[in-house]
Amino acid sequence: MKIWSDKEKLSREEIRKIQFKRLKKTLNHVYENVPYYHEKFTAAGVKPVDIRTLEDLRLLPLTTKEDLRQTYPFGLFAVPKNKIVRYHASSGTTGKPTVVGYTKNDLKVWREVIARIATMGGVTNQDTAQITFGFGLFTGAFGLQQGLEKVGAGVIPMSSGNTQKQIMIMQDFQTTTLIGTPSYALHLAETATEMGIDPKTELFLKYGLFGGEGSTEEMRAKLNEAWGIISTENYGMSELIGPGVSGECQAFKGMHINEDHFIAEIIDPNTLEVLPEGSVGELIITPITKEALPLIRYRTKDITKLDTTPCDCGRTTARMAKITGRTDDMLIIGGVNVFPSQIEGVLLGIKGIGSNYQIRVMKKGYLDRIEIDVEVINQDLLLSVTLLDQLYKEIESKLHTILGIHAGIHLVEPKSLARSEGKAKRVIDMRS
Ligand SMILES: [Zn+2]
């Protein structure tokens, strides 16, 4: 398996050396050019010169999405507007979006890190890659497009939606690589089957590069089975660069972080203390080569753990485990902490039900109540009271034994739940 860059094979010592050098440069850059950071550092009683080792990074204050909101639109930019060559923004579900900018060099870095994760996933210049992320203000599609082109793959910028046409193009252009969210990839497979096309034998997919939403091993198994592909997961966030922060190699032991561009830490989300390697906590990322928007110790809200032990693929960069949840989507049901991804893990492990589901959380009197709509996999099942009852009991008891929650289960007809063309909305919390 090819490794795109020698930077992915450096010794731990060399990686740390590069990280420290670039961190110092970034700290000076924000201290001098971003008044907001200058004040924040001053309030915390720390100057860039106080950072003498990589570990000293923890002396610096954390940055949150709230900081970006408060400085909307360009308050955290570290370069003048004439150096910005691209803008993106994330959705603002409440109020204003979060705006990010790129210099020419930032775009170059973006292409590079995408080329690396595409290579990890198996993509070469022999491949044709269909991008089903939306081209627009979101960061996903453009970064992937340019990085894949850097690898030499032929890019089909389909954008999101138009599912039947996606299938037609996949067939006619002989697409070998599918880029999108895991939930949309499953929806595509379902649609192909409905159109009378077997996704495994009548289409040409070899690889799936998935991201944009969390996924589980059970989801991967479903995707690989439905399409006959090798699927890898990758991780990113528009505030940090977009996709390209980390990607999975084919040893499937976590996502390799592009550590010469990003420093990762894990903190306890409650005490904000840095945790030792291997501990589960919130991922904090500091980009160390960004010019336009270098955020310092950005709180991703994603829960994971880090591993720097050698990987079978030959890369030496640290790996982050699959995201097991977000600090802000953790559900507390009757005092039990549950992540929607854990519920998904249980559901996808049960035969007879589909991969689409919806979680509703509500109050019944003073008590939390969780209800889950689950699609059965075929119509016949709905006709047998015995089978339905068995299935119902199996789901209920597994959720209780594995996660410790009592959930109301509603088995619904195949394909009756809404399909998403981007990130799936799995949870509706009606308590607030
Ligand atoms: Zn690896």
Structural account:
This protein is α/β, with parallel strands linked by helices and 432 residues long. The protein is 31% helix and 25% strand. The chain is built from eleven helices and 21 strands. A nine-stranded mixed sheet has the order 4-3-5-6-7-8-9-14-13, with helices on both faces. A four-stranded antiparallel sheet has the order 10-11-12-15. The protein has a four-stranded mixed sheet with strand order 20-19-18-21. β6 (207-210), α8 (217-227) and β7 form a beta-alpha-beta unit. The radius of gyration is 22 Å and the shape is globular. The N and C termini lie far apart (49 Å). Residues 249, 251, 256, 311, 313, 315 line the site of zinc ion.
Ends apart, CA distance between termini: 49 Å
Mean pLDDT: 93
Sheet having the most strands: 9 strands, mixed
Q: CATH superfamily membership of the largest domain, which one?
A: ANL, N-terminal domain
Number of helices: 11
Percent range of helical residues: 25-40%
CATH class of the largest domain: Alpha Beta
Strand order across the largest sheet: 4-3-5-6-7-8-9-14-13
The bound ligands are: zinc ion
Fraction of residues in β-strands: 15-25%
SS content category = alpha/beta
Give the low-pLDDT segments. Answer: none
